[in-house]
Amino acid sequence: MLDLLAERLDERILLELFPDHPPERIRDLLRGVSCRPADPPPPGDGVSRCCRLYTDGAARGNPGEAGAGVVLYDGAGRELASRSSYLGRCTNNVAEYRALILGLETARDMGCTELAISLDSELVVRQVQGTYRVKTEALKPLHARVTELLAGFARWSIRHVPRSENRRADELANRGIDEA
Known about the structure:
- This protein has two domains: 1-31, no CATH class; 51-178, Ribonuclease H-like superfamily/Ribonuclease H (Nucleotidyltransferase, domain 5), CATH 3.30.420.10.
- The chain is 40% helix and 26% strand.
- It is α/β, with parallel strands linked by helices.
- Strands 3-2-1-4-5 form a five-stranded mixed sheet.
C-alpha cells in the first residue's frame, strides 16, 4: 500500500509536506528502502550496502537490434558501476527485462544488500510489483529470473520514472547497440 502511495504522491505535495527532504528520499522511505549519504559502508570494501540502480533496455525496431544500459550508485550518489551490453535482436520489453537482470547481477556482485530500482518501463515495473500479470511467454522466464535475483536482497523497491530521469541508462543502452 505504501508503494502505491509513494508512486502517486505529487512532487509538489511532497515538497510542501517535507521541505527539508528531496521527494525521492520520501518515496524511498515509503517503499521501505532508504539510501542515505549517512549509511555507513560495510567493513572492508567501502561499498555502501544501500544502492540505487537505474536500468534501460533499447530496441531499434520492435523487434530490432537491442541493448541494455545499467548505472549503479551508492547511497551518497557516487557511481559504483555502469554497464552497456549488446543484446542482439529482441523486443523492447525483452530488452528492458534483460537490462534489469544485468543491473541486479551487477548490484549483487558489488555487494549491495538494499536496492532502490528505477526504470522507464511501466510494464516491467508493474509486472515486478505484481500489479500486472506476465502474459507474454517470452517474458515469463525473464520475470522469473528477476524474482530470483530480487530474493537475494534484504530489501528492495522498484519504481517507474520518466525517460528524462533515466537518461544515463538510456545512453548506455544505445551505446550497447552502437558498439555491437
